[in-house]
Task: inverse folding
């Protein structure tokens, strides 16, 4: 989980230019608070898919899977486990 | 007859008191009677008077809508602030318009602190829970009598300004009512209608939803920042709130289509889908039309904030139209357009020229900028005896034999990103203000997105005075993010030794566009 969160922080900071990406709480509501807009949200999905070789279905693009650093990291963990089976 | 937007609320509170006025999907809602009394109760707390400016700073909710009405009830104009904008920007706007009061959510404490620092005397009132407030009957009665004239300002919407600071577009109650009349007539709104509110309140699209609903005694469903950003949640709201009239930027509809969010939804209540703010790609518009019932009216609305919607194109039935790009259509009944050349002479049919607009919905002017206001209007030469003004849109259009306007782009460097209009000059000014930046130019390019379709992205070209380490771009980005809203911060910064120039010594934007379309070296390997 921690490695994914570190990758996400780096992506948010460097690619999406989120100012407080390093200091932000893991459960900070990224979308609700307007940190990510709708297009950046898709860029996060694309980043996660490429970086961890997982596939995220359109039906999974929901706040519970993408609404915070914790949520995204948990989604990646689940996807990795699914792949191992 | 209504002389102010507040009269629309008063009338609906009298005619359909128990009807739902505002709601959030699966959440809070308020009736017209309760909205009338809650807005009066909140207004009674405000020091502001007729002619003042009241800021509203909060994420979208029923409470926030109550705050907009409360501000107008005092006779003041409301100034909606973007809750996602940097604190420095909202503080600039607050100071620029000389806000007397601010209605804010507790969650906005950073921005509120910045506004207090800029305006130490400002009155700050919490809007949290405003919808629950019950009436102060004395205050309510007193406020109901507060005189408002059609020429008084209803709201000021700040948009990107080419000189480096945002500019405030002042809209009177009369202009807003002129637009609402057209909305009522064209959409035949009834008290049984349910309108979506997709746009943020600082965006002019919200005017149709909020005040069209109030005029009809209909319900407006406020879609918050999270629902708007997740296509599946937007589609759920469309179905479950039984929305009859949907209005958004094309991007919102395109994302719902692209992610399959609309498939399998019961949209039997839906009767009209309106979009505005940018061009709807024509193949995608055909696909949207095919996905909806043939009885659903599809309409492309056009108009800068300064005129509100002034032309519209009702998409003809599927299979009967072959436009290469959606036209912006015909004049609204509230406005009249004329296409002119550079000497302001009307051009023949089919020829390109600048679109000028006269009519009931024109803005009053730019806040605190008489010079810019004067430049943006020209005397009405069609009916000079009326002494009216034309607004110069800066948009290049032509008119075809059917009387349909077609949009051909801008005369200047304004672009649209995610439906927001952006003056590239404002971003360039912000870049120039950064220490070590010698030259800077920004261009807008179309880029492919995940799942197909293109979106506009901004690319900045920057030449520095000295050497900078690799962290330089980060510093530039951080500086921009401190003063500009996110949609104005370029997706990419490219360093150049010098900007290319045309033979006349101007920045060669055409070359920059060509370079910007090539993939950057930086982007590779990321992800």
Result:
């Amino acid at each position: 989980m921690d490695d994914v969160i570190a990758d996400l922080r780096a992506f948010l900071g460097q690619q999406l230019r989120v100012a407080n990406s390093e200091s932000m709480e893991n459960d900070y509501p990224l979308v609700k608070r307007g940190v990510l807009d709708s297009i950046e949200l898709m860029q996060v999905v694309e980043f996660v898919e490429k970086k961890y070789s997982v596939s995220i279905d359109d039906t999974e693009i929901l706040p519970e899977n993408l609404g915070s650093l914790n949520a995204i990291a948990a989604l990646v963990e689940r996807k990795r486990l699914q792949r191992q089976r | 007859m209504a002389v102010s937007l507040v009269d629309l609320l008063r009338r609906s509170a009298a005619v359909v008191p128990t009807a739902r006025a505002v709601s959030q999907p699966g959440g809070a809602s308020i009736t017209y009677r309760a909205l009338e009394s809650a807005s009066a109760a909140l207004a009674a707390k405000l020091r502001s008077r007729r002619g003042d400016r009241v800021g509203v700073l909060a994420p979208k909710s029923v409470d926030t809508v109550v705050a907009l009405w409360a501000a107008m009830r005092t006779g003041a104009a409301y100034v909606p602030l973007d809750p996602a904008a940097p604190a420095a920007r909202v503080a600039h706007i607050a100071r620029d318009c000389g806000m007397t009061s601010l209605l804010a959510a507790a969650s906005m404490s950073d921005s509120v602190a910045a506004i207090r620092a800029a305006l130490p005397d400002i009155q700050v009132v919490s809007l949290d829970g405003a919808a629950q407030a019950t009436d102060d009957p004395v205050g309510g009665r007193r406020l109901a009598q507060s005189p408002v004239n059609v020429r008084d300002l209803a709201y000021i919407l700040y948009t990107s300004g080419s000189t480096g600071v945002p500019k405030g577009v002042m809209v009177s109650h009369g202009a807003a009512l002129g637009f609402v009349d057209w909305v009522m007539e064209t959409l035949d709104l009834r008290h049984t209608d349910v309108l979506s509110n997709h746009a943020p309140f600082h965006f002019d699209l919200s005017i149709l939803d909020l005040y069209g609903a109030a005029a009809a005694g209909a319900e407006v469903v406020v879609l918050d920042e999270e629902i708007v950003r997740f296509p599946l949640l937007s589609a759920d709201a469309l179905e479950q709130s039984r929305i009859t009239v949907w209005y958004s930027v094309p991007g919102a509809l395109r994302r719902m289509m692209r992610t399959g969010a609309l498939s399998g939804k019961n949209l039997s209540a839906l009767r009209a889908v309106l979009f505005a703010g940018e061009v709807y790609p024509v193949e995608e518009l055909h696909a949207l039309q095919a996905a909806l019932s043939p009885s659903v009216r599809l309409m492309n609305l056009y108009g800068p904030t300064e005129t509100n919607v002034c032309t519209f194109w009702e998409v003809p039935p599927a299979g009967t139209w072959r436009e290469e790009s959606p036209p912006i259509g015909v004049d609204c009944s509230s406005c009249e357009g004329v296409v002119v050349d550079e000497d302001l002479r009307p051009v023949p049919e089919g020829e390109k020229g600048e679109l000028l607009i006269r009519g009931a919905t024109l803005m009053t002017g730019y806040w605190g900028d008489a010079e810019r206001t004067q430049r943006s209007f020209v005397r009405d030469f069609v009916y000079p005896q009326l002494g009216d003004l034309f607004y110069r849109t800066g948009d290049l259009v032509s008119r075809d034999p059917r009387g349909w306007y077609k949009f051909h782009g801008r005369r200047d460097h304004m672009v649209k990103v995610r439906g927001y209009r952006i003056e590239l000059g404002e971003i360039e000014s912000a870049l120039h203000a950064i220490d070590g930046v010698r030259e800077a130019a920004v261009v807008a390019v179309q880029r492919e997105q995940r799942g197909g379709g293109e979106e506009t992205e901004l690319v900045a070209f920057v030449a520095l005075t000295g050497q900078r380490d690799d962290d330089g771009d980060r510093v530039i980005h951080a500086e921009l993010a401190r003063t500009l809203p996110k949609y104005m911060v370029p997706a990419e910064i490219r360093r150049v030794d010098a900007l290319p120039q045309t033979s006349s010594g101007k920045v060669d934007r055409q070359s920059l566009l060509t370079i910007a379309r090539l993939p950057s070296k930086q982007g590779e390997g990321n992800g």
